[in-house]
What we know:
Blueprint: H1 3-12, E1 16-20, E2 23-27, H2 34-42, H3 44-59, H4 62-70, H5 75-86, H6 90-100, E3 111-116, E4 119-124
Antiparallel strand pairs: 1-2, 3-4
Helix pairs in contact: 1-6, 5-6
Amino acid sequence: xxxxxxxxxxxxxxxxxxxxxxxxxxxxxxxxxxxxxxxxxxxxxxxxxxxxxxxxxxxxxxxxxxxxxxxxxxxxxxxxxxxxxxxxxxxxxxxxxxxxxxxxxxxxxxxxxxxxxxxxxxxxxxxx
Length: 128
């Protein structure tokens, strides 16, 4: 599983993930499984980089333009894009992630789980 796959899976299940400094925050935490926590921890550097790239694409308007282009793609083209992303093509990964995060809100939750050296503790709007 890549960071893009993980982000897509979390979004499909209604979870929001965003970077907070050097950490990651997720909401709603009640939907977060232990396997999700482990995957997020394992992919943390890649997720932070992906989320930073996505934020930049949203900020400069590129993400919206990519969504317009994606709306014109055939099902076969979407499958090819997903295959290229799975094979590690960074541009395809970003495109797939942009499509997966369409309409994603950034509001910080009141409480999330924070991971520190394998231990879990509840903290206000913290990082994973």
